[in-house]
Amino acid sequence: MDTPSEILLETRRFCVVRTSETGRDGKPHSREIIRHPGAVTVIPLLDDGRVCLVENYRVAVGETLIELPAGTLEPDEDPQACAARELQEETGYRAERVELLHAFYLSPGILDERMHLFVATGLTPGDPAREVGEQIENLVVPWDEALNLVHTRKIQDAKTIVGLLYYDRFAARPDAGRAIP
User: Fold this and answer.
1) For the chain, which terminus, N or C, has the lower number of CB atoms within 10 Å?
2) Considering only CA atoms, which of 77, 97, 76, 101 is closest in space to residue 87?
């Protein structure tokens, strides 16, 4: 039987736990896992076909990364509502439509964070409401340029690579043979 988790670290946004699970050999094996409430990322598509990316300074890697807008779910928050909120907070844009495309795990070997990918359309510009300490600037580019930023490895953020390539391959083209869930 598996033993309960031991909390090693608890922060406002995540916690680290040690859990022990019985392996195929019948012996307990400890693992440290980051427990996360989940997050959203949004592909903001303007009516003219451009996409709004953000340049976001990330303290963890000491670099400014090109990303899709994203954010962490609040307790009991609906992912679609979170996507609309984060879009407005980070970019200033408000969307008429926010549609779920997919949900995926970022690094399931150590992290249980589930990322919900949305596309936002019918955008109206406005003022962002960025958190104090966030160093974010909008980067509005044509769709092909966004894909080229992936191809040339200028985009290094996993959720952004997944989001842009997933949308381009499965959702953007009518011949892709897939309906948006």
Assistant:
1) N
2) 97
User: Which SS3 state, helix, strand or coil, does residue 9 take?
Assistant: strand
pTM assigned to the model: 0.89
Of the candidates 10, 134, 137, 145, the residue annotated as catalytic is 134
| Residues contacting 111, CB < 8 A, separation 6+ | 33, 34, 36, 105
Count of CA atoms in the C-beta half-sphere (13 A) of 115: 21
Query: Is position 67 annotated as part of the catalytic site?
Result: no
pLDDT per position as a tens digit, 76-132:
999 999 999 999 999 999 999 999 999 999 999 999 999 999 999 999 999 998 888
- Cα gap 160→111, rounded to integer Å: 18
| Domains detected in the chain | 3-35 (no CATH), 39-176 (3.90.79.10)
Q: What is each CA distance from 51 to 12, 117, 133, 163, 179, in whole angstroms? A: 31, 15, 25, 12, 21
